[in-house]
Write a structure and sequence with these properties.
The protein has helices at residues 16-26, 32-41, 134-140; strands spanning 5-7, 45-47, 50-52, 58-60, 63-64, 89-94, 100-104, 113-118, 126-131. The chain has 148 residues and is of the alpha+beta class. The protein is globular, with a radius of gyration of 14 Å. The mean pLDDT is 90.
Length: 148
């Protein structure tokens, strides 16, 4: 289990100053494991890509949100996530259905949990806990073939 390879990684990699400017905009500091990953695999799709929520349900990690893509990059999410209800929730990846995997800085600024934001819940913020750290998420990804 765990990521074996990254597919469709963007050629342009974010430099530390680009990441720092996004951190400043969101008012957070990304965990080091995430920064190292995104500097290598910007916009990439992990393989395998299935994860379990704390409650046992399954989800799909589609791709890392890019720091450099001109059409869809992480800064574009600032306005959506600057809503007071979402303060401290910072997206870093998507599932295939338009939902977000996010860092949750609300309770612990230095070690944010990984949560899933379901955008289909009407009128409310629907967060589900996935795991404790970004490294845990990457190590726990699996494919359906892994469980046969």
């Amino acid at each position: 289990m765990g990521v074996k390879k990254w597919l469709f990684v963007e050629d342009e990699k974010p430099v530390e100053s680009v990441i720092a400017s996004v951190e400043k905009a969101f008012g957070i500091e990304y965990p080091e494991d995430y920064k190292k990953c995104v500097m290598k695999y910007n916009g990439g799709f992990p393989h395998p890509n299935i994860f379990n929520f704390k409650d046992g349900r399954q989800g799909v990690f589609n791709d890392l949100i890019s720091f450099t893509d001109k059409d869809l990059k992480i800064e574009m999410f600032y306005e959506q996530f600057s809503n007071p209800v979402l303060k401290g929730i910072v997206p870093f990846a998507r599932d295939p259905f338009g939902n977000y995997l996010c860092f949750d800085f609300q309770e612990n600024y230095s070690s944010p949990k990984i949560v899933f934001l379901n955008h289909e819940e009407e009128g409310e913020v629907a967060l589900s806990i996935i795991c404790d750290t970004f490294s845990d998420l990457i190590k726990e990804l699996y494919s359906l073939e892994d469980i046969k």
